[in-house]
């Protein structure tokens, strides 16, 4: 059997099992409503990760950034960079906006073949200086900023807003950026 077929079947089963065990956002009491407006061109550029829920794919990473580029063909490229054990790491992915009219804040991101994950813009500064990113589940959460550091009062305000949405803010890991 072709090894790609085996990997594909394994990924499909993981997806089926994950979907079967996921709880709805209403069941967990999370408000994951996204922004009503998004100027995609203004969202492009470099974002610094201020805080996140820890995940196996980012565990132990510091100095994390995400750089979004709108390509001439209208596609979006994302490059995530960071340090793991002092060594630079980078992964390149793609982003799409499935329904820009009805759900402008709901994006999809992929770092592997055609497997896309939800990327929900929950909060966005009017000047596009910070963003809160989640997903359709309560498993993912990021606070992003255009600068490596965020003023403490602003960060506290953002974290309080996340808590009001029902997210467990004690799970936030604050990312070293200096």
Largest sheet, strands/sense/barrel = 8 strands, antiparallel, barrel
How much of the residues is beta strand, in percent?
35-45%
CATH superfamily membership: Calycin beta-barrel core domain
The secondary-structure class comes to alpha+beta
> Would you state the CATH class?
Mainly Beta
Round the mean pLDDT to the nearest integer and report it: 87
Question: Radius of gyration from the CA trace?
Answer: 17 Å
Q: What's the CATH topology label?
A: Lipocalin
How are strands sequenced across the largest beta sheet? 1-2-3-4-5-6-7-8
The CATH architecture classification is Beta Barrel
> Helical content, roughly?
10-25%
What does this structure look like?
The chain has 178 residues and is an alpha+beta fold. It has a single domain (32-174), classed as Beta Barrel (Lipocalin), CATH 2.40.128. Helix content is 22%, strand content 38%. It contains 4 helices and 9 strands; from the N terminus they run αααββββββββαβ. The chain has helices at residues 3-21, 25-28, 40-43, 152-164; strands spanning 45-53, 61-70, 76-84, 87-96, 106-112, 115-124, 130-134, 142-145, 172-174. It has an 8-stranded antiparallel beta barrel with strand order 1-2-3-4-5-6-7-8. It is globular. It starts with a helix and ends with a strand.
